[in-house]
Structure formats: C-alpha cells, structure tokens
From TrEMBL:
Source lineage: Bacteria, Pseudomonadati, Bacteroidota, Cytophagia, Cytophagales
Annotated PANTHER family: PHOSPHO-2-DEHYDRO-3-DEOXYHEPTONATE ALDOLASE, PROTEIN AROA(G)
Keyword Zinc appears in the UniProt entry: no
Domain of life: Bacteria
Originating organism: Marivirga lumbricoides
E.C. numbers: 5.4.99.5
InterPro entries the record matches: Aldolase_TIM, Chorismate_II_sf, Class-I_DAHP_synthase, CM_dom_sf, CM_II_prokaryot, DAHP1/KDSA
Uppermost EC category: isomerase
Protein name from the UniProt record: chorismate mutase
Domain Chorismate mutase span(s) in chain numbering: 261-352
Keywords: Coiled coil, Transferase
Length: 354
C-alpha cells in the first residue's frame, strides 16, 4: 500500500463534528463553532448504522444540501461514512471530500468489496477504514487492501475500539495492541484514533486521545455538537466545539523534530510499545484480582475454605495449555500462575481477617 505521502495536514490531523447531521441549523451552528475554534475538517453521519431498530438512523440524503452550504460558507472539508455502493455514489455526486468505512461494514468483505467497486476510477478521494467491530487485524487489513486495490491511493485506518460483552469502562475496548500491530506492519499507513467511540463518555476522551498521541497516531476523529446533551445520537460522548478545543489544547504532543529523531530509533519505538502493553497487562491483572476479591467475599459469607484444590488443579492444568496455543512456554505460564495464586490467597486471607 502506498501510504502517508498523500497526507500533509497539520499534526495531529483533527476531524471533528457531530455524530449525525440532524437539521440545517444544527449543522451550520456546529460547523461555525468548529471553524471558530480552528478546525477545518468536519465529520458528520448522514446514514447511521444503529445497534437496535427504532433509534435515529440518520437523516440521509437530506443532509447533502446542508453540507454543501456549510462547505461554501465556512470553506471546510467534509468526511462522511459510506456503507454501500449507493452511499458512495451519492457522496461522490455531492462532492464529499473524505469517505470512511464504518466498523460494522469492515467486518463484511462483501460490503467492503461493493464499496471498493463503487470507488473504481475515483483515485483521488481519501478513504479511511475503521477497524472491524471484532478484534480481527486481518479483516481490517483485508478491507484496506480491497479499497486500495480499487485504485484509491489516499488511504488511512481509524481505530475506534472493539465490541465486547465483558463489562468495561469503555464503550468499545481499545485493545491497543491491534492498531499497534497494524502500525508495525505498515509504518507508513495513516492511523487515526476515534476516542469518541472508544470512550462512549466525555470524561474518558482526554486520556484516550493522549494515549493515541503517545503512540504516535497521526490524528483524531472526535464528535462535537453545538449542544451535546441534545444530540439525537451519542449524546454522552460529544463535546461542544469550545470544549473540544480546550481538551485538545491540554494534549501533550511531542515536538515533531524530536518525534521523528526518536522515530529513527527503532529500539525506543519498540520499548514504547512494550510500555503500553505492560500497562494493559497490569490492567488485566487488576481485573482478575477484583474477581478474586468477589470470590473471597462470597466464600467468607458462605464459610467456605480459601484454598480450593480442585479449582486450582484445573487452572494449573489448562492455563499452560492455553498459553502454549499463544506460543508461550508452559513452564513459564505455570510459574506465573503459581505466583498469581499466592497473591489470590493473600488477598482472600486479608478479606477473611477483616
Ligand atoms: C479465586 C478463588 O480462590 C483461590 C484462588 C484461585 C485463583 O486465583 O484462581 C483459585 C482457587 C482458590 O484456591 C476460587 O476459589 O475461585
């Protein structure tokens, strides 16, 4: 894939705008607010794939005259999501500047191919591909390849997190390792983070955006609405243009020259990735010990012994086997779990002694 050369925007490249285009008024006022804060690439959902029926599914084609007006008045570029050949056709007819393929589309190679076919001969339009909702790097790469093979040269990836059934503080768990693997394989691929969809709520946006900057993402796509609480979709995760600016101003972004000097230092780059992976490892461990505490409290209530031989034997048998499937040395996994188990016993003993 030919990659970042097409992209010469400011660093980081910020794409900001409402989750959905709702009304002419909402669009014009939001874009005006964003332009006042210095933003010039606007996002807006025209068609919205929603999890459940009877939610607001976007205003559809009605939004195009509003977009046209906003482009003329404020001299901005517009990015929208496309999920079918028809969407692509309409986006091109209506002079949309940047297209993105959403996470629910990336999962389906038939859909992606349909979009790719509709893009044949277009070439110059930037197309960004969101990660699939499920944590499958190859599916993400496959979608990027399909778009690229259609002749699109200006291509990029958006990391928006992954769906999960497990309880999480995130709306979509970030699993940073996956976009980092993508970055390792295609160091020149434009990589943008979507903190809004990872966070699902305002108060997590900053830390996610900062992490993306620490990991040298090229940009952020963030939802912003003139009055977020009244938004017809994703109300909890949008910011006013002014608050978006305040948040972005707090981000620490390394000086470009140091960043690129450092980038040459492959070792530093890999160590950064190790740091981030270790943070995740510790988060997972902390989650495990929270569960161990729950078991401890329950056992205390029911007056059950702390040490459970059968359960422990089962763990000691299958964890090394699980590890082996991930190319981990079973002896190492066994030792690791012995240490984890010791800590579980210590934690539960504390609970019993409380
Ligand atoms: C968590 C428990 O308590 C202890 C700790 C275990 C663990 O860390 O996985 C397993 C068995 C018990 O010896 C439990 O009983 O499940």
């Amino acid at each position: 894939m030919e990659l970042k050369s097409w992209y010469a925007e400011e660093k980081p490249w910020i794409i900001a705008g409402p989750c959905s285009a709702e009304t002419e008024d909402q669009m014009m006022e939001t874009v005006e607010g964003l332009v006042k804060q210095g933003f010039s690439t606007i996002r807006a959902g025209v068609w919205k794939p929603r999890t459940r029926p009877n939610s607001f599914e976007g205003v559809g084609e009605k939004a195009f005259p509003w977009i046209k007006q906003a482009k003329e008045v404020f001299k901005v570029k517009f990015a929208i999501e496309v999920a079918s050949a028809r969407h692509v056709e309409l986006a091109l007819q209506n002079d949309i500047d940047i297209l993105w393929v959403g996470a629910r589309t990336t999962v389906n190679p038939f859909n992606v191919q349909e979009i790719a076919d509709a893009l044949k001969g277009v070439k110059d339009k930037p197309v960004l591909v969101k990660n699939p909702v499920n944590p499958d790097l190859n599916l993400w790469i496959g979608a990027l390849e399909r778009i690229h093979q259609a002749g699109i040269q200006k291509i990029g990836a958006i990391h928006r997190g992954f769906s999960t059934y497990q309880e999480s503080i995130y709306r979509n768990i970030p699993l940073w390792q996956i976009p980092l693997d993508l970055k390792s394989r295609y160091p020149e691929l434009l990589l943008i983070c979507d903190p809004s969809h990872i966070a699902g709520k305002r108060d997590l946006l900053f830390e996610i955006a900062q992490k993306a900057m620490n990991l040298r993402y090229d940009g952020l796509i963030i939802e912003s609405h003139r009055s977020p609480d009244e938004a017809w979709s994703d109300a909890a995760q949008q910011l006013t243009p002014a608050n978006l600016k305040l948040m972005l101003d707090k981000l620490q972004i390394r000086d470009l020259t140091i960043a690129s000097a450092k980038l040459q230092n492959k070792l530093d780059q890999i160590r950064d990735e190790i740091d981030e992976t270790d943070k995740e490892l510790l988060e997972v461990l902390a989650r495990r010990f929270e569960l161990v505490k729950k078991v401890g409290n329950y056992k205390k209530e029911k007056n059950v012994a702390i040490f459970q031989l059968e359960r422990w034997n089962a763990i000691l048998k299958n964890r090394p086997e699980w590890g082996e499937k991930l190319q981990l040395n079973p002896d190492f996994v066994k030792t690791l779990y012995q240490s984890v188990h010791d800590e579980s016993i210590r934690i539960q003993t504390d609970i019993y002694n409380e």
